[in-house]
Specification:
Radius of gyration: 21 Å
Shape: globular
CATH class of the largest domain: Alpha Beta
Strand content: 5-15%
Helix content: 25-40%
Bound molecules: pyridoxal-5'-phosphate
Largest sheet: 7 strands, mixed
CATH superfamily of the largest domain: Type I PLP-dependent aspartate aminotransferase-like (Major domain)
Order of helices and strands: EHHHEHEHEHEHEEEHEEHEHHEH
Strand order of the largest sheet: 2-8-7-6-5-3-4
CATH architecture of the largest domain: 3-Layer(aba) Sandwich
Number of helices: 12
CATH topology of the largest domain: Aspartate Aminotransferase, domain 2
């Protein structure tokens, strides 16, 4: 049986062959520890890390020395939120995040609550956007951090980050933006937030490597390391650096920097055709978050009266998901879609599709045929 067409690029992307090629020498030949200062093996690895640091910084118009390499975005988020909470708890113990954050952020917030911090979860409107005036009113003297996801992993909805940053900075607070889905897909500039998260496997790099970008125009951000030992990454993240992974992240960033614009246009056209054909041919279907600025490659479509949990296994020629990969085993309705005002049934009738660099027109044609045929023949839509 041929492998299904991959339309789950928000969960993860395949490694680009150019990225793999760049990584290969660092497994066998240039395998040195970048912290080894006394021989050529260490120097070669150290040089490769320095280059990757520059490539990552260039993608977000940032400064290389402000890139802290981690094992991915989840670790970057832990370092940012717990690190700031621990370093700045004398200033305050209040944190604000949106209700549509990824679980990586929400679970860290729950952990903070167990440690006595107070967390406010800001609502979003039907289009998935936060109310900036409400944010302004919610920031208090003891608020130490605001977290706003740059672009949502389920709906692709992009928050008005510049407006948000202006408000947060005027209140002398720090803004963390979980930019994991945005970096490499749309322009993200380091100066737009105080802390940004990056994950290589979301833009054709390897899994298990990412970064926290610290700084956005601030001289220094005080935060406490969450992994001690060895003093790597300026003492913020101990442990021998994953040289091949970091080289892969750097190469993925370099490719994204040069190809993102054309790639985004091509993918958005495919995504738009997918959405318009489904919504025209299947009465009552709706795009979640429609009307908001969205990532070019992401769509979340609601099929009224359909159970996504039952439809997806019937679409055996496609690899799609009901929501985020991290929650796909939970069976619970998506907290992101519920925050947009969907009922449990509506959230459970939604399918997320993530297109990518390697998605072709022919694949979208096949996906459209499969979805339209299956829904028409097996389901009775109940448009409201
Ligand atoms: N934040 C967002 C918005 C994501 O989509 C993901 C990945 O699913 C993460 C954080 C976690 O990233 P990682 O897999 O690198 O830990």
């Amino acid at each position: 049986m041929p492998r299904p067409i991959y339309l789950d690029n928000n969960a993860t992307t395949p490694v680009d062959k150019r990225v793999l090629e760049a990584m290969m020498p660092f497994f066998v030949e240039d395998f040195g520890n970048p912290s080894s200062r006394t021989h050529a093996y260490g120097w070669a690895a150290d040089e490769a890390i320095a280059r990757a640091r520059e490539q990552v910084a260039a993608l977000i118009s940032g400064e290389p020395e402000r890139v802290v390499f981690t094992s991915g975005a989840t670790e970057a988020i832990n370092l940012a939120i717990k690190g700031i909470a621990r370093a700045q708890s004398r200033k305050g113990r209040h944190v604000i995040v949106t209700q549509t954050e990824h679980r990586a952020v929400l679970d860290v917030c729950r952990s903070l609550e167990r440690d006595g911090f107070e967390v406010t979860y800001l609502p979003v409107d039907q289009a998935g956007i936060i109310d900036v005036y409400l944010l302004q009113e919610t920031i208090r003297d003891d608020t130490i951090l605001v977290g706003v996801i740059w672009a949502n992993n389920e709906t692709g909805v992009i928050q008005p980050i510049d407006e948000i940053a202006e408000i947060v900075r005027a209140k002398r607070c720090l803004l963390l933006s979980d930019s994991t889905q945005a970096v490499g897909k749309i322009p993200v500039s380091a100066s737009q937030a105080d802390l940004l998260t990056i994950s290589a496997h979301k833009f054709y790099g390897p899994k298990g490597v990412g970064a926290l970008y610290l700084g956005g125009g601030r001289p220094i951000i005080r935060l406490t390391s969450q992994i001690d030992g060895g003093g790597q990454e300026g003492g913020l993240r101990g442990g021998t650096l994953n040289t091949p992974g970091i080289v892969g992240l750097g190469m993925a960033a370099d490719i994204a920097l040069h190809e993102m614009e054309a790639e985004g246009l091509r993918i958005a056209q495919l995504r738009d055709r997918l959405e318009s054909t489904i919504t025209e041919r299947l009465e009552g279907t709706r795009v979640n978050g429609a009307g908001s600025p969205r990532l070019p490659h992401t769509t979340s479509i609601r099929f009224p009266g359909v159970s996504a949990g039952k439809l997806i296994p019937q679409l055996h020629e496609l690899a799609v998901s009901a929501g985020s990969a991290c929650s796909s085993g939970s069976g619970r309705p998506s907290h992101v879609l519920k925050a947009l005002g969907l009922t449990d049934e509506e959230a459970g009738a939604s399918i997320r599709m993530g297109l990518g660099r390697f998605t072709t027109e022919a694949e979208i044609d096949t996906a459209l045929d499969a979805i339209v045929n299956k829904v028409e023949t097996q389901w009775t839509l109940s448009p409201s």
